[in-house]
Each structure stands twice: as C-alpha cells, then as structure tokens.
Amino acid sequence: MVRKQNNKANLAYTTHSRVELEPLFHGMEPNPGDAVPGGRFVRGFASSIVKKTAHEHEHRPHDPAEPRSYSRVRTLSLPWPESHPPARDRLEKFLQQRRDRSLRAKGYIALPPAGQTYLLQYAGKRMYWEPADFNGPSYLIVIGIDLDEERLLQEWNVFCQTI
Questions:
Q1: Cα-atom radius of gyration of the chain, to the nearest Å?
Q2: Angle ∠(93,113,77) on CA atoms, nearest 5
Q3: Which of 24, 94, 125, 152 is the most buried (most CB within 10 A)?
Q4: What pLDDT was estimated at residue 32?
C-alpha cells in the first residue's frame, strides 16, 4: 500500500505493524500543514499507519495452569460416522445452526448413497462442496474461537445418533 503513495519505497518487514515511516516516505514532500513533528504525513494512508502502529493493549501474566497457547483459536476433529454418514443437507443444517464461536469447518466427506468423496469448506454460514479423489477415511474439523469443545462433541454425538 505504501507503493501507491511512493513507488520508490523499499519493502519493510515488520511484526505488530511496527515500522519506521521515514524511509517509506523518503523523497516525498508534504504539503504545508500535512506534516507532524518528525516529518510524518498525517492525511490519507500515512495517518492510518500512524494510528495503527502502536501495540496498545495490556498483557496479563501467563497462568501456568492454562494451556500454553498464544491464540484463542481452537480446532476440534469430529469423529465421522462411517457406518451411517449424514446426508449432505442434514450436515449443512447442523453446521449452520451452530450458535457458538465456530469460524469454519473443513474436511473430506464421503456422502451417501454412492459414497462420493467431497472436500467440504464452510465459513461465514456458506458451504462449499468440491468433488475430491481423497481415498482416506472421512473427517470433519471445526475451527473457532474459544470453542466449547466438550459441548460441541456432545452435540455432534447426539446429531450422529439421530441419523
């Protein structure tokens, strides 16, 4: 995005959006009144960088009893009922009715009656099915933020028993 403002700017690699702005805008002249102390531009693209570069949240100490993860994103592999797989419409309904913090689901699924295998990708209440040549056992992975894994697994087991 910087190249839209300065096509001669060097690429900058950063962590947490911490980037020195001076080299990015080197050679550009600000309009009078558009600069802040230190020569940084305020309007347009540069103002969004200035506002977003600060890493401004508090860090709490790590509780040794908590799992060591730097993310609240969790995944859960749901056991696929090979002997009586759900029909496509039932599976779609199960996923779309999720009220927890599921973000997406994906997996290779063999659907009845012919057992054709599909790649399933579900995100944002949208379902995408693509025929696949996958020969392994069917599986379904649910990905979400702070998933209640135990509850999700219980609901899945109840769902599988009603097929």
A1: 24
A2: 50
A3: 24
A4: 58
